[in-house]
Amino acid sequence: MALITNAIKGTLDTLPANSYKIQYVEAVMREIAENYGFHEMRTPVFEHTELFQRSVGETTDVVQKEMYTFEDKGGRSITLKPEGTAGAVRSYLEHGLFNEAMPQKIYYITPCYRYEKPQAGRLREFHQFGVECFGAGTAAQDAEVILLGNEIFNYLGINNLTLEINSIGCPECRKNFQHALKEYFSSHYDELCDTCKGRLEKNPMRILDCKSPICSEIGKSAPKILDYLCDECNEHFELVKKYLTANNIEFKVNPTIVRGLDYYTRTVFEFVSNDIGAQGTVCGGGRYDGLIEEMGGKPTPACGFGLGLERLLLLMDAQNTEFPERKMCDLFIGSMGENANIKASAIATDLRNEGLAAQFDTVGRSVKAQMKYADKIGALYTMVLGDSELESGKAVLKNMQTGDQTEIALDDFTDNFQAMIIKQAMDGLDGLGMEGIDLSEILGGSING
After folding, report:
1. Domains of the chain, CATH where assigned
2. Sign of CA dihedral 272, 275, 276, 279
3. Ranges in the chain, pLDDT < 50
4. pTM (2 decimals)?
């Protein structure tokens, strides 16, 4: 019997000690996406099952093996979203965003669910950052989406990533390719896994994405899609490469990339790392010009990518990537007696209103225990209030890093506190020969800032 105090297999808790890391990563992604003209969309965590069957593809591993599908109390087949694109397209169509100025550029950060064997970098509940651009069919848009992902990695300080690109053509030029694949894999029929034997008739290209070692090995010698591209698709792919080169983006053409979802056309790409073992694809995406029409809309070009946040953080940890320091407590106010604690509460509120992180005792501990707690949470300054401090209107402020103590007036405490820490910091800079720096602008009203 499962313990209810244990997380379900394939899921992870994000604890306060680490949550600041993912908040930082998400903030970077949001800001860069906004700079590229993408704006946030939020869609439900579950959709009609048919949405994913039609968009992702019935012959994919996702639909055949990995979806969390159930029947709700109304008898409807519902699926927890396994990826973000299908829900974004559904929302685009339902709300008539095709009537707005084109292209429509959106991003999302959303939980996704796939029933897979849990391992490092592969969870059953994971979070995906994705971008989607609807209404632009040019190679320039493909390149821009790739550039956006590349800028995120650069900003976060992630190294040793390889951008791999390919073109899987349009439906017309894929017909001959599919025929060649069928002939090739038919000659290896007895060696294929049962799943790929079923794919051979419906969609032989899916065999190239099989995770079975035997099928993967057979696939290495299979015909290559680049040899079957029509002139238009070939020209598009060459332009993508020119745009990437013009933007100093290094890339490798990998003709085996097909991506795991049926809706892709033409450009497909992956950012791959060797630092996190077998789950090396950190970000993947491409163009999917037929998906919106497949789901009932007018023919509309589209492209985008998905990036798993947990896998990204795993990579950042493996590379010892630096994060901004976690926000600490600027001031912990200790107290002796109820009146002093009420005053501490009022001072803390004023500080918080000015953007400072302040805490006071809400447990009823002794002053000694309060100071131990202040030390454990990394408070930068402490102050203790009692009857004598309330009567005199003054208290002693202690710098927990240097041990320096300074008397401070309780009236207009927030202004006095900010002025004092700026002066102490300026004195420290003077000692380093950095006179003349306006620290108040650097601090921006917060020690942690």
Report:
1. 16-170+230-318 (3.30.930.10), 331-443 (3.40.50.800)
2. positive
3. 432, 434-449
4. 0.86
